[in-house]
Amino acid sequence: MGKLTLHGATVSPFVRKVKLVLLEKGIDHDHEPSAPSQDPEFLKISPLGKIPVLIDEEGRAINDSSVIVSYLEDRFPEKSVLPQDSYQRSRARWFEEYADGVVSPNLVFGIFGQRIVMPYFFGTPTNEETVQAAIESAPKFLSYLEAEIKGKDYFVENTYGLADISIASTFCNLRHADFHIDQEKFPELAKWFERLLGREDVQQLLQGEKGFIDSLKAKAQSA
Ligand SMILES: N[C@@H](CCC(=O)N[C@@H](CS)C(=O)NCC(=O)O)C(=O)O
Fold first, then answer.
1. Pairing state of beta strands 53-55 and 61-63?
2. What is the pLDDT along the chain (223 residues), one digit of tens a residue?
3. Which is the closest atom of ligand 1 to the Cα of 17?
4. Would you say 52 and 18 are in contact if contact means Cβ atoms under 8 Å apart?
5. Is residue 111 situated within a structural domain?
6. C-alpha of residue 65 to centroid of ligand 1, in Å
7. Are residues 208 and 107 in the same domain?
């Protein structure tokens, strides 16, 4: 029997979220930092060709980052990344959804997608209008998060968990794309993100990702 295996590179916010949950829970696993793919072999484990995918010890696939996190919580309830209280659990899942379903499509795809993925993964020029539109829309999303984090160190029950992991995962992509939280307008959110960036697991992932992105940039420049 094999080990649990995570497929997907952590430059994806969805993969990074799962990786940080695996690390926080101390779950032994292998990691294949693959890219999304429409290759028929990959479609056998990921019907939409997306990352992340988690393969269990019996070779069975689990798709979608939120489904994977639920599975990990069900199977490894020790060192939970969710609160005990049902309402607070729903709050943590809400922030996960806000990160995946709101911050990612609006800001990560618009800024990181255009500044990094298009030129360095696909060799397509950045669409500056899309970037500007995303940057202009950012205060709407960041104001909400600023209000939610005010007076706390972490989003839910003031304890590091899934809400922080999910939101920080999207902000890591924005940082790779040189978009920084305005400390004057969103001081509490900026402080919270600095706190998260001070964590060893986050730092290690970011360092590896930066090396990977820098190597793509160098390749593009020498081409
Ligand atoms: N809801 C999915 C979204 C996963 C997702 O969109 N992953 C991106 C990478 S950031 C991907 O694989 N995109 C390739 C594609 O859409 O074909 C999840 O949470 O896992």
1. antiparallel
2. 789 999 999 999 999 999 999 999 999 999 999 999 999 999 999 999 999 999 999 999 999 999 999 999 999 999 999 999 999 999 999 999 999 999 999 999 999 999 999 999 999 999 999 999 999 999 999 999 999 999 999 999 999 999 999 999 999 999 999 999 999 999 999 999 999 999 999 999 999 999 999 999 999 988 7
3. 19
4. yes
5. yes
6. 9
7. yes
Q: Domain range spanning residue 23?
A: 5-75
| Cα gap 69→153, rounded to integer Å | 23
Go through 51-81 and write b for each residue having 16 or more CB atoms within 10 A of its CB, e for each that does not.
bbbbbeeeeeebebbbebbebbbeebeeebb
Neighbouring residues of 86: CB distance < 8 A, sequence distance ≥ 6: none
Q: Are 197 and 119 in contact (CB under 8 A)?
A: no
Q: Give residues with Cβ within 8 angstroms of 185, minimum separation 6.
A: 139, 142, 146
C-alpha span between 156 and 99 (Å, rounded)? 14
* Angle at CA of residue 177, ends 202 and 98, nearest 5°: 65
Mean pLDDT of the chain: 97
User: For 175-193, how does the pLDDT look when each residue is reduced to its tens digit (9 = 90+)?
Assistant: 999 999 999 999 999 999 9
Ligand 1 pocket mutation pick from 16, 17, 51 by most atoms within 8 angstroms of CB: 51
Tell whether 9 and 70 lie within a shared domain: yes
